[in-house]
């Protein structure tokens, strides 16, 4: 309970009046000499208990009457009722859910439009001298203004300009910011309005924290939290989302048509028919590759394979778009791919040493990349998009890494005392830089691998490239070989192709691998942190491990990639896909900028300092392409992160193409930017993964309290006005007071007295 | 004229007179019946002659008719002694002015005394509280009224009431049957009071109990916050009397009814007098009733 005029409660002190009168009159007794005291005493004995009861009851009734009077003029009200009922100024905070489910249609309008209308209506109900603050909220909150909190015109303009983001709903940050903002106000009454479709996922995401916050708002004196429901909970929304675009385990390169697996999911509550899905590359529709999905049931996931022709090398923006549903925010999904003319692989292999050349690791790997006959198709090999260069460890110079995409260290020793043996420390240093920049490194073991040298040079104390420290050697017989445990393959990983058929075939071949010798990796010791085991043997020994280093990644095989320690690469049906998967995986990391999720921080390490950097935003949805310059945000000169200059922006809230460029630089055309970096930002698909809206009872259950919920619509304004006075108990208190006074009078009459 | 002799009271009382309703024993011939049968003018009865009787009283006419010796008896008429017993305890202090119980009692006592003396009967006065405060011997001299009024004027209320033992004492001390007028508010233990009255009646006295009460004590019209101070006891009661009125009236009425019943049962003439009523009227009314009753 709260009081709209709490000072009036001081009137309760008047309760002392009847008490004082009571004792005052008790003290003022008129003396009277009296003869028949015996009769009097007897009469008192007979009546005193009843008289005392009557007297105290009367006193209690009168005290209660005064208390009630004070209570009535103090205007008691429910805690949820603000002093606004009395026409006092209000510090109002409007929190708008700007997740993209708010773009869903609700009748002839969208939910956001309903929220805007309701907000404008409520704005008009605020008493004079009220203040208003507007906060947009999805999975983060942003105070939009107005700069002058009492300027309603500014507030109206801000409400009018509201637009949805590509973020998912989470009410916690918005309400947290709202509470903080409301605390700054000085008005006696404070109201927080949350305009939202009340999507269940937004309530459940940080359920416990949200519940605690709502409790805090409730307990916070005079803050009235009102939910404005924008969207009928029973109204079903048809929605299909593009949830993934995946390459068919290939390395995109020029002059090829690349198959893309586009995954669609019907996240709505109704089946959808005739859903058109189209592929776009660099914003241009691929005419021949549009498909129509005849039927997607509610909750069903459908995969559509579309092919796109890649003509130009460089970063390409691939997007899949669907049409014909209710929520547009998840109808497009971007993926940035790096299209190459050539993929260059450097094989650093221990020189052939008396073994058949076909047993050498570099030979096996080399030919795993080429689907041609080595002797007959030399020309094809020369024109092929994969270029392989083999060097002996002693010839591996840092310069070799400048035009290389992936490096294989095959049975390669690190340099010890012999300057003609092993890879040099300079190469290793450059190799680290290479991987950090985004290069791929594959390490295969062998007899030439000196374990101590590897741990020292490539381990955590050296270049930090080893996924896990090497503990020692393990050997077995051919009769009881080490074999991979397929069920230990980490999914998703480079060893688990996304496509089911490919994965089955690959794993079938992987099962046939037999090994007689392995290095044993230490999963728990120093230097193991950050390493991940992708595959184990049936004995539980790590067989393949990986470590992400900077923008690149290292894949480590705990056995040899030739035939000296077993049969891994010697089986072409296994070696070819394995190496292609490795290559596809490792080269796909080399995408500067790249694909991001809405709300993620966009980070760029510019090559040189600039006085100012700018974030180029996607063109607003309401504007036609090419109609105007894309909007820009000033990011300042960036910050130094150690020796590197870094520019960050957390303003990518809407799905689309972003670019960070030096101030004043031209906007990139397509994804190619000569001066900056380009990002493709996707919507947060958590938003439409569960479109269920919380009913009033569910909201009560989730919050542990029944909040005020007012539907956005024609009656919002009057409902809010009623709400402000509905919980006031003054009338009831006065009615009760009247009844009490009647009772007091009746009782006084009954007692045959009146003071 | 002394204070307690008011002409209007005396005039009406004197006109009505106080006749002994039953036999009284006096020292001289008067207007009232004597228990002693004698040879006066009022024939009463015949009885058989027994040896020793004065033969002068033989009714010869009767002997002529019945040839039996009979003696003719006559009733002796005598005066009476009226014993006024006046309660002068503190409880009689209640009331102001004419309604003061003691003042009213004094007026009543003086009026009765005057009336009795004027009809040549004898009056004795005894004033009491817990014991005898003043006593005036019986006298029928007109000047005795002055002694009575003087004594009354001198009397001040004090101490408590203890009527019962005093009535017993009176009954024992007064050998001649007469009229006992008890003037009191009767605020004493009821049982000893009634026992004393019964004792007096047993001794053959005609007893009149003038029960004086202040109207406040009977109707209890008091209001407001009152600290009741006991007139005969060191007690103090704080209360709002209007809240007690029903219970008080119930108790008082029961008490009055008990007294009335007790007096009626033992042949005591019970006269309740409220001090707000003019004494002349109240006394005249009683005397008229008394006259009517004696004629019946």
Short description:
The complex is a heterodimer of chains A (755) and B (296). By secondary structure, chain A is an alpha/beta fold.
Shape call of chain B: elongated
CATH architecture of the largest domain in chain B: 3-Layer(aba) Sandwich
Low-confidence stretches of chain A: none
Structural class of chain B: alpha/beta
Molecular shape of chain A: elongated
Number of extended strands of chain A:
38
Low-confidence stretches of chain B: 23-29, 36-41
CATH class call of the largest domain in chain B: Alpha Beta
Portion of residues within helices of chain B: 25-40%
Strand segment count of chain B: 11
Number of domains of chain B: 2
Please trace the helix and strand order of chain B, writing H or E for each element.
Answer: HEEHEEHEEHHEHEHEEHEH
Structural class of chain A: alpha/beta
What's the end-to-end separation of chain A, in Å?
A: 35 Å
Strand fraction band of chain B? 25-35%
CATH fold field value of the largest domain in chain B: Rossmann fold
Q: Give the biggest beta sheet of chain B.
A: 6 strands, mixed
Number of helices of chain B: 9
At the fourth level of CATH, the homologous superfamily of the largest domain in chain B is von Willebrand factor, type A domain
Please give the most extensive interface between any two protein chains, plus how many residues each contributes: A-B, 26 and 36 residues
Q: State the oligomer.
A: heterodimer
């Amino acid at each position: 309970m709260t009081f709209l005029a709490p000072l009036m409660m001081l009137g309760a002190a008047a309760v002392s009046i009847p008490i004082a009168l009571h004792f005052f009159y008790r003290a003022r007794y008129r003396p009277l000499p009296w003869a028949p005291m015996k009769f009097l005493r007897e009469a008192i004995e007979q009546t005193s208990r009843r008289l005392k009861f009557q007297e105290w009851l009367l006193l209690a009734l009168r005290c209660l009457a005064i208390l009630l009077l004070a209570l009535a003029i103090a205007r008691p009200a429910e805690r949820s009722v603000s002093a606004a009922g009395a026409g006092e100024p209000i510090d109002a905070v409007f929190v708008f859910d700007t997740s993209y489910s708010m773009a869903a249609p609700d009748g002839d309008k969208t939910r956001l439009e309903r929220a805007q209308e309701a907000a404008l209506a409520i704005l008009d109900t605020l008493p004079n001298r009220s203040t208003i603050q507007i906060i947009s909220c999805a999975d983060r909150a942003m105070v939009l203004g107005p700069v002058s909190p009492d300027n309603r015109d500014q507030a109206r303009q801000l409400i009018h300009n509201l637009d949805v983001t590509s973020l998912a709903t989470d009410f916690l940050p918005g309400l947290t910011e709202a509470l903080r903002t409301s605390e700054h106000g000085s008005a006696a009454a404070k109201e927080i309005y949350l305009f939202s479709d009340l999507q269940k996922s937004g309530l459940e995401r940080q359920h416990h924290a949200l519940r605690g916050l709502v409790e805090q708002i409730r307990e916070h004196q005079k803050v009235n939290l009102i939910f404005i429901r924008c969207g009928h909970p029973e109204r079903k929304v048809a929605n299909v989302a593009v949830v993934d675009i995946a390459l068919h385990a290939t390395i995109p390169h020029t002059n090829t048509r690349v198959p893309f697996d586009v995954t669609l999911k019907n996240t709505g509550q109704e089946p959808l028919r005739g859903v058109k899905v189209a592929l776009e590359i660099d914003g241009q529709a691929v005419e021949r590759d549009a498909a129509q999905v005849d039927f997607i049931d509610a909750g069903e996931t459908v995969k559509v394979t579309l092919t796109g022709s890649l003509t130009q090398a460089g970063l390409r923006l691939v997007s899949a778009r669907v049409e014909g549903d209710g929520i547009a925010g998840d109808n497009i999904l971007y993926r940035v791919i790096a299209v190459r003319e050539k993929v260059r692989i450097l094989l650093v292999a221990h020189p052939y040493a008396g073994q058949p050349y076909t047993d050498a690791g570099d030979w096996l790997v080399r030919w795993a990349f080429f689907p041609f006959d080595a002797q007959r198709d030399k020309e094809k090999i020369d024109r092929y998009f994969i270029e392989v260069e083999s060097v002996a460890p002693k010839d591996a110079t840092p310069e070799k890494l400048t035009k290389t995409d992936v490096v294989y260290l095959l049975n390669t020793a690190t340099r010890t005392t012999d300057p003609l043996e092993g890879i040099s420390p300079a190469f290793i240093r450059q190799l680290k830089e290479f991987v950090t920049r985004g290069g791929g490194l594959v390490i295969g073991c062998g007899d030439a691998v000196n374990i101590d040298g590897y741990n020292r040079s490539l381990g955590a104390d050296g270049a930090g490239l080893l996924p896990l420290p090497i503990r020692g050697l393990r050997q077995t017989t051919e009769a009881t070989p080490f074999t991979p445990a397929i069920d230990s393959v980490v999914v998703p990983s480079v060893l688990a192709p996304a496509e089911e058929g490919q994965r089955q075939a690959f794993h079938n071949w992987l099962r046939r691998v037999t090994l007689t010798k392995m290095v044993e990796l230490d999963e728990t010791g120093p230097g193991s942190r950050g390493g991940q085991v992708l595959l184990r043997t049936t004995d539980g020994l790590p067989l393949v491990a990986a470590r992400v280093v900077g923008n690149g990644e290292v894949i480590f095989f705990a056995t040899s990639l030739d035939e000296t320690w077993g049969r891994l690469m010697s089986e072409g049906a296994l070696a070819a896909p394995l190496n292609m998967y490795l290559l596809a995986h490792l080269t796909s990391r080399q995408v500067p900028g790249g694909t991001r999720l809405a709300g993620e921080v966009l980070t760029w390490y510019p090559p040189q300092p600039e006085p100012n950097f700018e974030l180029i935003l996607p063109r607003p949805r309401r504007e036609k392409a090419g109609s105007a310059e894309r909007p820009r945000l000033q990011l300042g000169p960036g910050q130094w992160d150690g020796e590197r200059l870094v520019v960050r922006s957390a303003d990518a809230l809407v799905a689309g193409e972003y670019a960070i460029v030096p101030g004043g630089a031209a906007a990139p055309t397509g994804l190619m930017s000569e001066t900056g970096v380009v990002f493709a930002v996707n919507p947060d698909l958590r938003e439409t993964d569960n479109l269920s809206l919380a009913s009033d009872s569910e909201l009560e259950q989730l919050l542990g309290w029944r909040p005020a919920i007012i539907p956005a619509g024609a009656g919002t304004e009057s409902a809010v006005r009623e709400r402000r006075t509905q919980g006031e108990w003054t009338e009831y208190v006065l009615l009760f007071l009247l009844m009490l006074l009647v009772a007091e009078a009746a009782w006084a009459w009954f007692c045959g007295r009146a003071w | 004229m002394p204070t307690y002799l008011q002409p209007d009271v005396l005039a009406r009382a004197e006109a009505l007179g106080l006749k002994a309703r039953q036999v009284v024993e006096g020292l001289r011939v008067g207007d009232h019946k004597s228990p002693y049968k004698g040879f006066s003018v009022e024939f009463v009865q015949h009885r058989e002659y027994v040896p020793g009787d004065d033969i002068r009283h033989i009714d010869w006419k009767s002997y002529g008719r019945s040839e039996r010796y009979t003696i003719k008896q006559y009733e002796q008429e005598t005066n009476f002694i009226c014993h006024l017993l006046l309660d002068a305890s503190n409880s009689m202090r209640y009331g102001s002015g004419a309604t003061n119980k003691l003042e009213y009692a004094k007026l009543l006592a003086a009026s009765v005394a005057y009336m009795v003396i004027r009809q040549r009967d004898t009056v004795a006065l005894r004033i009491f509280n817990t014991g005898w405060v003043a006593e005036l011997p019986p006298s029928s001299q007109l000047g005795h009224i002055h002694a009575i009024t003087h004594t009354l004027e001198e009397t001040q209320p004090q101490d408590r009431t203890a009527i019962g033992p005093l009535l017993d004492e009176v009954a024992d001390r007064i050998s001649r049957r007469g009229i006992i007028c008890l003037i009191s508010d009767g605020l004493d233990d009821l049982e000893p009071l009634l026992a004393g009255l019964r004792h007096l009646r047993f001794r053959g006295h005609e007893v009149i109990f003038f029960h004086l009460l202040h109207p406040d004590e009977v109707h209890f019209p008091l209001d407001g916050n009152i600290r009741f101070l006991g007139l005969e006891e060191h007690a103090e009661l704080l209360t709002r009397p209007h809240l007690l009125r029903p219970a008080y009236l119930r108790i008082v009425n029961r008490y009055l009814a008990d007294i009335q019943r007790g007096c009626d049962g033992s042949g005591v003439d019970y006269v309740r007098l409220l001090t707000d009523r003019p004494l002349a009227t109240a006394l005249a009314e009683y005397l008229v009733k008394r006259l009517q009753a004696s004629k019946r």
